[in-house]
Specification:
The protein is built from 5 helices and 5 strands, in the order ααβββαβαβα. The protein is α/β, with parallel strands linked by helices and 154 residues long. It has a single domain, classed as Ribosomal Protein S5, domain 2. A hairpin with a 5-residue loop joins strand 2 and strand 3. Helix 1 crosses helix 2.
C-alpha cells in the first residue's frame, strides 16, 4: 500500500473516531476495537487519496453494522475536518462503474466540471451524487435497514 493510500486510511479512521458519537459508537471504542485495513491483491501496487471516502464508509459500516448498498460506487479524498476533495480520473471511474452495473456513484462536488468528459449515455444511466462533506455520504450509500446500530445516534 502506498504512502498516500495509508494516509487516506488514517484520515478515514481519524474521522470515524471524531464522529464516534454521531455514528452511535462509544467515545472510547478504540480502546476495545482492533482495526486492520486489508486491500487484496497485495502484488498489485495501490496508491491515491481517492480512497478516503470509501475507506470511511467501510470503517463506519464495519463498526456500526450499517449495510451499504451493493449498487453504489464512491470516490473522494477526505480531510480531517470531513471535507471531500477533488480527485482525478472521474471519467474512468464513471465508465468503470457503469460497466459494473452500478446504479449510483458518489463523487466530490468539486469534480462537477469533470463530468462533462463522461459520455452522456453513461451520465443518464448513473445516478451521480455530488458531495462536499463526508457527512453527506452515509445517507447516500446506506441501505434502508441496518443489521445493528443506526448510522446516526438516536
Amino acid at each position: 500500500m502506498g504512502d498516500v493510500l495509508k494516509e487516506s486510511a488514517a484520515a478515514a479512521f481519524t474521522f470515524v473516531r471524531a464522529r464516534a458519537g454521531d455514528l452511535g459508537l462509544a467515545e472510547d471504542f478504540v480502546k476495545h476495537t482492533a482495526i486492520h485495513v486489508h486491500l487484496p491483491a497485495g502484488g498489485v501496487p495501490k496508491d491515491g487519496a481517492a480512497a478516503g471516502v470509501p475507506l470511511f464508509v467501510a470503517l463506519a459500516s464495519a463498526l456500526t453494522q450499517l449495510k451499504v448498498r451493493p449498487d453504489v460506487a464512491m470516490s473522494g479524498e477526505i480531510t480531517l475536518r470531513g471535507n471531500v476533495l477533488k480527485v482525478g480520473g472521474i471519467k474512468e471511474k464513471c465508465l468503470a462503474a457503469h460497466r459494473a452495473g452500478v446504479a449510483r456513484i458518489v463523487l466530490p462536488k468539486r469534480n462537477a466540471p469533470d463530468l462533462e468528459e463522461v459520455p452522456e449515455e453513461v451520465r443518464d444511466d448513473l445516478e451521480i451524487c455530488l458531495v462536499s462533506t463526508i457527512d453527506e455520504v452515509l445517507g447516500l450509500v446506506a441501505e434502508l435497514e441496518t443489521t445493528g446500530a443506526p448510522a446516526a445516534a438516536e
